[in-house]
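Exam prep: given the inputs below (a chain plus 4'-deoxy-4'-aminopyridoxal-5'-phosphate), describe the expected output before reading on.
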Amino acid sequence: MLSKPFDDRDGLIWVDGKQVQWRQAKVHVLSHALHYASSVFEGVRVYGGKIFKLREHSERLRKSAEILGFEIPSSAQAIDDACNEIIKANGIVDGYVRPIAWRGSEMMGVSAQKNTIHLAIATWPWPSYFSPEAKIKGIRLKTSEWRRPSPQTAPVFSKAAGLYMICTLSKHAAEKEGFDDALMLDWQGNVAEATGANIFMVFGDGRLHTPKPECFLDGITRRTVIELARNRSIEVVERVIKPAELKSATEVFLTGTAAEVTPVGVIDDLTFSPSEITLNLLDDYEKLVGKKSA
Ligand code: PMP
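Solution:
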């Protein structure tokens, strides 16, 4: 059963400095962002009333906009304050926060030099990105036909809406065949990431391996998990990983704000079982964010 559509809910959304009734938080159809993908966003989580790594997300939002050539008219501090204000206004204690910035309607062509920059922040309860059952067994990934573009082809370090076009296509193709998500290779054919999360692998040498973030987001969760691994004296190797190497991986997991630490059980016809390193890091992450007591 589908939950209520996102434009038909109760609550308040922060739009350009004001709290607006949820159903009234609208954009005009002639908005540059809608036609030319000139928008950037964040995905942030609230645990126990506290927004995890909020400043890093607010700074990344500003950076994503800068990469697309526009400036968000709010400082990182002001974005932090607005996020905190809107979670309180909606009584969100455990949930998700979605800040989004976009080019408005003054110019309606490829060029958008004079468009007003808007900023909105919505928040809602959101327990788990993947189903809890899938999360325990490990999710199933199917390799996508689409590849992460080269940094010369797209603004790959911006969390920009346009980059998700191939993510939706990849995820739909995977779901159509009964998988939970897609594994995306990069433009050179190396392992890159999933459609909304970074990927890690263990190969039996006790070290943790992950692709270098050279054409995709260096996720805030990715960096957090690298730190957690180092705290456990697990060596982390950031390197080029060929898809052919996956058959010798013993553990695979994803990381992301929404995905948190999610074990992977299947990639195409390969199977993996979440084991010590994955489960320890999952546990460390849940303790760090405050989902579990330390
Ligand atoms: N890659 C993509 C494509 C994503 O959408 C996300 C989620 N923002 C990530 C990686 C992980 O980033 P983070 O850990 O900062 O949420």
